[in-house]
Amino acid sequence: MTLLDVKGLSVDFRTANGRFRAVDRVDVSVERGDVLAIVGESGSGKSVSMLALMGLLPWTADITSEHMRFDGTDLARADARTRRRLIGRDVAMIFQEPMSSLNPCFTVGFQIREALKAHLELSRKARQARAIELLELVGLPEPERRLRAYPHQLSGGMSQRVMIAMAIACQPKLLIADEPTTALDVTIQAQILELLLDLQKETGMALVLITHDMGVVAETARRVSVQYAGQKVEEQGVHALFDEPRHPYTAALLAALPERATTRRLPSIPGVVPGQFDRPTGCLFSPRCTFADERCRRVAPDVAAASLGVARCHYPLVNGVAQKAAS
Amino acid sequence: MGGFLLRRLITFVPTFIGVSIVSFFFIRLLPGDPIILMAGERGMSDERYAQLAAQFGYDQPLVMQYWDYVTGILHGDLGTSFRTKRPVWDEFFALFPATVELSLCAMVFAVLIGLPAGIVAAVHRGKWPDQALMSSALVGYSMPIFWWALLLIILFSGILGWTPVSGRISLLYYFPDATGFMLIDSLRSGQSGAFASAVQHLILPTIVLGTIPLAVIARQTRSAMLEVLGEDYVRTARAKGLSPARVNGLHALRNAMIPVVTVIGLSVGTLLAGAILTETIFSWPGIGKWMVESINGRDYTSVQGGLLMIALIVMLVNLAVDVTYGLINPKVRKG
Amino acid sequence: MSASEPVTANVASDAPGRPGRFREFWRYFRENRGAVAGLVVFALFIVVAILADVIAPHSPTQQFRSALLQPPFWQEGGTTDFLLGTDPLGRDMLSRLIHGTRYSFFIGVIVVFIAATSGILLGLIAGFARGWVDTLIMRLMDILLAFPSLLLALVMVAILGPSLTNAMIAIAIVLQPHYVRLTRAAVLGERAKDYVTSARVVGASRLRLMFVTVLPNCLAPLIVQAALSFSTAILDAAALGFLGLGAQPPTPEWGTMLADSREFVLRAWWVVTLPGIAILVNVLAINLMGDGLRDALDPKLKRS
């Protein structure tokens, strides 16, 4: 059974200027032990879909879906109690800003032990022991001392390690990492990513990594899902994606990587991601796509076959060229 | 933490000096001759005038007068009241406990009701509990409290006859004034019904005095909670699968309390201002009523002394609030 | 994928455009039904104040000796001559209440004007000058704030003599520190920002920096404070009037009308209740507007 099976997830925000569709009929599926990367620019809705799964969106959000099944339970239709038993124990999440994600009023140890107390039947001594063990697992020296520290006394990298420790405290089956390294120094970034991958290998848990950095994707993921303006536009295995991107957006993202530059000027994608007030008719990417034609601008594309990377495109790319033969 | 305290104390001293200067100049700013005002006598002879001038120190240079004034304060000498001919210091502290008792009760009332109201409103943002509570709070601090007092008197004393109209305790009871706190003294006196009478007399003034702080605390708590509820660490707490009660009541509230405690502490100024009106209406024998009577009765030494003491109390409470803030905010405590 | 080909954006022609700033503010404000209700009521009060002479059935100070303490017209003993009854001196309550709107509006405007102009000026100076000027101004404000507001106003009126003008001056002085603090805090916050630095680099003078560059960006909390002060001024003036130290009788200021009303609490409820209701409704309307202003101007509380 697929560990995470989300189908047709849509999230609308009620704003003062009307409804804003941040996530549009997105499917996500993750097998046990899998490593999925969700890629996209800011505004692509990649974080929002995972936050919706965890039930962490604000009150102005409306969530609809066919189903959001985690380990058999449909989180969309489950009651609050059932959800709370799974969240934090079998599925956990870490966030982009570790410095502000820890409660400044309580010690690190208190916050880790709290996670243990909520889900596991352990004695106080056992919780303390496990907390120390967790800090060792995430590579923090002098764990006993660290447990007594307050969050503002930790650096960004240490805070993120603490967050990871808290997330894996109850040995989750799925860990969602929402841009875990974006707010950290470059040297720390590599360490944290390595830590996440090591933990994944050791515990066999599934990992969903949300990022905008294609370089990170290349090093860590097994499968990649690309999102644009709230829609999923492509999903393939990582090697296939890098060799043969099917959606023009993916191709443009890859072309913008410095490592792939063939000309003196780095190619960039002209235009901006559509916001609330300038959503195009037809394909959402058409204003910025080099292959777009009248059909693209008028008619919203269907999802292509799996062999074509389930690309949301009228003319999925083959060898980097849109297939516009008369059909 | 130590540095923080030191800096606060350093700002305390010049402010106190400034306050003492203001109250020192108060009498000298009044229209009319200060010596005649202070003596309260009319049509005195020249010798009497000179005698009084020497007695009050007016023949001395201004700086010396101020110096005498300040040293007097430090010795507890605030001059003599015109009306009662007793030392102002004694007058003040004889009446002070009544105001403290009323203010404390009002504060407890305001916090006990206002704090939970603010939390409930924040958690149910936009829905009817929020709207009902915040509308009530708004009406609460839009009312002139002297009018609110009159309304309550009409209802509870006039129509229902449940509460008395004035004073701290029924005239039937008499016992020595040990602590000055009627609630404590009446209990210790052992006279049956004394405590109940004291409570009965406290109810309406407490409600009246506590209404505005209640409304302010409810609104402040709500907005502090709303701000905190949007923070990342609250999201983390939810992501850990904690119950809403724990997320709101512990993680959010702890952080929201920091600005709220500051607001509670700084309400002392509002309480003392409100006490002036409340005590006047309920004939509550505290320093608020005393100040109004002194002003109306032209007892200027009392006004001057009362002004200084009240300002001093407000400053001390603000200092205590700042220290408490430093203690509960771990970022300040641990540096 | 050729990078040098320009791509024209095609935006759907029926998508709504980004609204302008005032319209956005108005939309938020309009959503808050309480705030709009407050605005309507406040406008009503202004109209009544302007047309007081025309609307009021009688003169507010004329005493009708034959109709002392007459109840409102719906009670026994009341007549339609005096719709809301008369006070102990035989003056028509309705006319006095109507004329009272003039005083409350007058008080609010004058007090806020004095407090805000001097307060903002001092705050700007403190924020820009720094050093000992800043410390001096803030110490002065601390001293003012050490006294409970009503007490200070009371004492000032005692010095200056009881009258409405002196009450207004006293209240304005007491409210001023809030403006100084707000302005100074906003100035300190804005000074560090890049747009101020660039203006200074381009060579803007101190005065220009203060009034043209920085001040417009600090206005939001000041506007909210102004609304709050308006209602505080009305309440404080009423309190002083109640204590006999504000507007003097026979001025139909609502607080003064309540001054000697205690003895009529049981005999003549209309003398006690009606002026208070007038104050309550007026202040409530202003506070509702103030809340609406704050929610509409404060970006943090915005929904999107």
Low-confidence stretches of chain A: none
- The strand count of chain C comes to 0
Overall mean pLDDT of chain A stands at 89
Query: Radius of gyration of chain A, Cα only, in angstroms?
Result: 21 Å
Distance between the termini of chain A: 38 Å
The residue fraction in helices of chain A comes out at 25-40%
Percent in strands of chain A: 15-25%
- What is the count of β-strands of chain A? 13
Could you state the order of secondary-structure elements of chain A as H and E? EEEHEEEHEHHHHEHEHEEHHHEE
Shape of chain C: elongated
Structural class of chain A: alpha/beta
* Spatial arrangement of strands, main beta sheet of chain A: 7-8-9-3-10-11
Computed CA radius of gyration of chain C, to the nearest angstrom: 25 Å
Mean pLDDT of chain C: 82
Which percent bin holds the helix content of chain C? Answer: 55-70%
Structural class of chain C: mainly alpha
Described by its quaternary structure, the protein is: heterotrimer
Structure annotation, total helices of chain C? 12
Which descriptor suits the 3D outline of chain A? globular
Order of helices and strands of chain C: HHHHHHHHHHHH
Ordered list of secondary-structure elements with their pairings:
The complex is a heterotrimer of chains A (327), B (335) and C (304).
Chain A: E1 4-15, E2 18-30, E3 35-39, H1 46-54, E4 61-64, E5 67-70, E6 73-74, H2 80-86, E7 91-94, H3 108-119, H4 124-137, H5 143-147, H6 156-167, E8 174-178, H7 186-203, E9 206-211, H8 214-220, E10 223-228, E11 231-237, H9 238-243, H10 248-255, H11 294-298, E12 317-318, E13 321-322
Parallel strand pairs in A: 3-9, 3-10, 7-8, 8-9
Antiparallel strand pairs in A: 1-2, 1-4, 1-5, 5-6, 10-11, 12-13
Chain B: H1 2-29, H2 34-39, H3 46-56, H4 62-74, H5 88-123, H6 128-142, H7 145-159, H8 182-189, H9 194-229, H10 232-239, H11 244-266, H12 268-282, H13 287-296, H14 300-328, H15 330-333
Chain C: H1 21-31, H2 33-50, H3 52-55, H4 93-129, H5 131-146, H6 149-160, H7 164-191, H8 194-202, H9 206-214, H10 219-242, H11 254-257, H12 269-297
